[in-house]
Design goal:
By secondary structure, the chain is mainly alpha-helical. It has 14 helices and 6 strands. It is elongated and about 120 Å long. The relative contact order is 0.08.
Length: 371
């Protein structure tokens, strides 16, 4: 019986070991298959990731992006700068691509890239020390212009009409989108008495366009980007002076129209604040001209009586909004004016401005210099 039992136990053990071996082989096969699948997925994902990183960031975006490559920048430093400016997707892939192609000799300088550029175009630009793509249009918008005047310049320089530009800047749905996108734009610009919601917010500067037919939205957003950047530098100072952004921009537009030099702007801004603090009206002629909707060589007494929320002979405090765009100098002067005891100033028509403390002094200057 014992031998028979031993044989039975041996057979059972043999069967158990066989089943155990089959289980182990199955587990090993599953593990190996899983590893193969993981490696395959990883390889495919890695391939797709690298392939994507080698492509342009946005093939349809021709907007120029200004990028500075400092002197002495390393390849990794350049790659980091390009990634931070959203010109390339991945700095590590860019560095490997440069090594693979054995590229070197990149030059420091100021570049204009676009997000539609390929890695080869970017590399070629960096090697030659020049932008790879010249702008199709370069348009200069001076300071002190209204939106209508800006529209006229773009209609002259670009393949758009004044009507297209004005329709877009006055479109309520578009304005609401911009308010969401730009923190500087507040609900103040939704005042129905404003002639144009974006009046004053389209910054005076030179703009490059890289498309044959740049969309109106790109034109507007380029200008708002510049305004946002400039205004952002002065937010703390606005808070210190207890000014809202809209108030600061409105004051800057008036100062822009009343003065040319920085010294004049600071003095005149100080005079305006002196008037506001004592309850005087600003009584500045550029607001009258804006209220009238035109240009005149001389503002007459009857002109100052026009009933308009922009006419500072008619309303107390600031007008309801800007009367033109402005320079950074005008904004800075409006936030950091020169303190003085002056309440009046007079232009003599020759570029000179005479400041006075009392109305009597002001009238004496007027009698002497205004014919």
């Amino acid at each position: 019986m014992s031998k028979r039992n031993d044989k039975g136990n041996f057979k059972d053990n043999l069967i158990a070991r066989g089943e155990e071996a089959r289980t182990v082989r199955k587990v090993v096969a599953i593990v190996i298959l899983s590893i193969i699948i993981i490696l395959a997925i990883g390889g495919i994902s890695g391939y797709m990731y690298i392939k994507s990183a080698l492509e342009p960031v946005d093939p349809n975006n021709e907007k120029g992006v200004q990028v500075e490559i400092p002197l002495g920048s390393s390849t990794s430093g350049i790659a980091k700068i390009l990634e931070e400016n959203d010109i390339i997707k991945n700095s590590m892939v860019f560095r490997f691509y440069i090594k693979f192609k054995n590229e070197s000799g990149f030059q420091a300088g100021d570049y204009t890239f676009t997000k539609s550029m390929t890695l080869d175009q970017i590399i070629e630009s960096l090697k030659n020390g020049r932008i790879i793509k010249e702008p199709v249009y370069r348009v200069t918008i001076p300071e002190g212009l209204t939106i209508e005047e800006i529209a006229a310049i773009y209609a002259e320089e670009l393949p758009i009409t004044e009507e297209e530009f004005l329709n877009k800047v006055d479109n309520p749905d578009y304005i609401n989108q911009l308010i969401q996108a730009y923190p500087m734009l507040t609900e103040d610009i939704l005042n129905p008495e404003l002639r144009h919601p974006l009046e004053g917010y389209l910054f005076a500067a030179t703009y490059d366009f890289y498309e044959e037919e740049p969309p109106v939205e790109v034109i507007i957003q380029n200008m708002l980007d510049k305004s946002q950047a400039v205004i952002g530098e002065y937010l703390n100072k606005m808070t210190e002076r207890e000014l809202t952004i809209h108030e600061a921009v409105t004051m800057a537009s008036i100062v822009e129209k009343e003065a040319v030099t920085e010294d004049q702007r600071k003095k005149i801004a100080g005079i305006f604040y002196n008037r506001l603090e004592t309850g005087m009206r600003l009584q500045t002629d550029p607001t009258v001209l804006y209220a009238l909707g035109g240009h005149k060589e001389k503002v007459l007494l009857k002109d100052t009586e026009v009933e308009s929320p922009f006419n500072t002979y008619h309303v107390s405090g600031l007008p309801i909004g800007p009367i033109s765009n402005f320079s950074e100098s005008a904004l800075e002067s409006s936030i950091n004016p020169e303190e003085s005891d002056f309440y009046y100033f007079l232009h003599d028509g020759q570029g000179n401005i005479y400041y006075s403390t009392t109305l009597e002094e002001h009238n004496a200057y007027k009698a002497q210099y205004i014919q």
